[in-house]
TrEMBL record:
Biased amino acid composition, Basic and acidic residues: 1-18
Listed transmembrane segments: 84-102, 114-134, 140-160, 203-223, 276-301, 307-327, 334-357, 363-386, 398-417, 429-450
Organism encoding this protein: Cladophialophora psammophila CBS 110553
Region (Disordered) location: 1-24
Name this polypeptide is given: Major facilitator superfamily (MFS) profile domain-containing protein
Membrane topology annotation: Multi-pass membrane protein
GO CC annotation: membrane
InterPro entries named among the record's database cross-references: MFS, MFS_dom, MFS_trans_sf
The UniProt record lists the keyword Hydrolase: no
Residues covered by the Major facilitator superfamily (MFS) profile domain: 30-455
Gene Ontology molecular-function annotations: transmembrane transporter activity
Major site of localization recorded for this protein: membrane
């Protein structure tokens, strides 16, 4: 077979003609399933925000009026609502490591299908909640079950695509959080117009939960598991998969829990770098996801406009994630620069919303647009957690830990906004600005450290990364031939 050279990160690696042909076609069928699942996860998580426009908060007594502005507009305390939003991420936090363990010890596709079925049932059960305690329990179990998805997808990508392909593939499924935000407001508004004997917010949860239940059945039949065990590949195609995995230097797909790799993950600064970036970008992201319609309503827009105006925010989120994914796929070593650039753009947005004139609705809304761009920085950090970590247990551990950071950030964001009096939310925007400034610093420092590490490995092992058999399952710190993408 003809041999051609191909760049992967900072290293040259050989590629056998046809290496990325048939398996990538199988991976291409996997990607739409991942995208639809993540969109449903994001949609189901965010229904509560839309339900606030249909008396959800007042029915469950989650919002109280604590005073009035000079023009008669109420000053609200949304602490109980923010607590309910926070409880989703508490459940996500509690569920992340148990779900990681189950996904490694049992077929990931089956664990994911079952979790999807159960969280669909929980979404439907939201219609039965009638008080603060009920919604708190409901959101906890929803978060616990949804915690399966993103860490499993991060590991999925590393074994279906090579490292230079992973950033774009991660961006494609991760961008569906923006797709959900784009399409959900108008659908939710339509669902909210259904006239029944029930309050108007209840059919939203019943119908969308039923859609998720149906999708879980599709996943159980259509979602492949490991490329080394799926029956959809022939033996010759499976050999191509092995060559691709060897080229990744990423270790094998293993059902065995490696304690050494687990402990090594927590000694690796890359874990803390990716986790902190995702945590810090999660603060404004979580705030927009939970308080987006409430904040826009506070700018002076009515209920329908507040829902409709979240559509372009979702479109900007999805577009920025996909654009950054394309750029980092097209040109090597731009991932940390992309994180810094997106964070700086969103810093400008937080400053506008924090310090801008309250009577200029257009300017304030533009600031929210700019804040939405930072979600793509979190998406790049997710891809870095996949591409810069080798060893199956270590990769699964780092992936799960980064989404623990995601949970913490999404807890902090709504809490900051909930504790900040509406409709101005000064403390919320100020806190978001500080978090994004920290992202710039962390990304810059990590880039410098990894660049030095690559140069050190080049001096010791030579400039060309070698290959190890996937049965070795070496971590990136144990494999001197591994080079980090920047």
């Amino acid at each position: 077979m003809a041999i051609e050279a191909e760049r992967v990160g900072d290293m040259e690696t050989t590629k056998t003609e046809g290496d990325d042909f048939t398996p990538d076609e199988e991976g291409a069928s996997l990607l739409p399933l991942m995208m639809m699942t993540y969109m449903l996860q994001s949609y189901d998580k965010g229904i509560m925000s839309a339900a606030t426009q249909f008396n959800f908060n007042s029915d469950l007594k989650l919002t109280t009026i604590v005073g009035y502005q000079a023009d008669g507009k109420p000053i609200t305390n949304n602490q109980k609502y923010s607590n309910a939003a926070m409880m989703f991420y508490i459940g996500y936090l509690v569920g992340t490591y148990p779900m990681m363990y189950l996904s490694q010890h049992y077929p990931t596709s089956k664990v994911l299908s079952l979790a999807t079925f159960l969280w669909g049932a929980v979404v439907m059960s939201t219609a039965g909640c009638s008080n603060y305690v009920g919604i708190m329990l409901n959101r906890f179990f929803l978060g616990f079950l949804e915690s399966t998805v993103a860490p499993a997808f991060t590991v999925f990508v590393t074994f279906w695509w090579t490292r230079d392909e992973q950033a774009l593939r991660n961006s494609l499924w991760y961008s569906c959080v923006g797709v959900a935000t784009t399409i959900s407001p108008l659908i939710n508004y339509g669902l909210g117009q259904i006239n029944t004997s029930m309050p108007r917010w209840k059919p939203m949860f019943l119908i969308l939960g039923a859609v998720t239940l149906f999708w879980s059945i599709v996943l159980s039949f259509a979602l492949p598991d490991s490329p080394l065990t799926t029956k959809r590949l022939t033996e010759s195609e499976r050999k191509i998969v092995v060559r691709r995995l060897e080229r990744n230097n990423a270790g094998t797909i293993s059902r065995k829990f490696n304690k050494g790799q687990f402990l090594e993950a927590f000694r690796d600064y890359k874990l803390y770098s990716c986790t902190l970036i995702i945590l810090l970008t999660g603060v404004p992201s979580g705030a927009l996801g939970t308080f987006g319609t409430v904040v826009i309503n506070g700018f002076g827009f009515d209920h329908f406009d507040s829902l409709a105006l979240t559509c372009p925010i979702g479109a900007i989120t999805a577009t920025s994630i996909l654009f950054v994914g394309y750029v980092t796929r097209k040109w090597n070593n731009l991932r940390y620069l992309s994180i810094v650039t997106c964070a700086l753009i969103s810093i400008a947005g937080t400053l506008i919303c924090w310090l801008g004139p309250r009577n200029n609705r257009g300017l304030l809304f533009a600031g929210v647009f700019l804040i939405a761009v930072q979600v793509s920085a979190g998406g790049v950090a997710v891809s870095l957690a996949a591409s810069n970590i080798a060893g199956h247990t270590k990769k699964a551990t780092v992936s799960a830990t980064t989404f623990v950071g995601y949970c913490v950030g999404n807890v902090i964001g709504p809490e900051i906004f909930g504790a900040s009096p509406g409709p101005v939310y000064h403390a919320g925007f100020m806190g978001s600005c500080i978090c994004l400034c920290c992202v710039v610093v962390i990304a810059t420092v990590t880039y410098v450290l990894l660049r030095r590490e690559n140069a050190k490995r080049d001096r010791i092992h030579g400039g060309r990364g070698g290959q190890h058999g996937i049965e070795e399952d070496l971590s990136d710190m144990k494999n001197g031939e591994f080079r980090y993408v920047l």
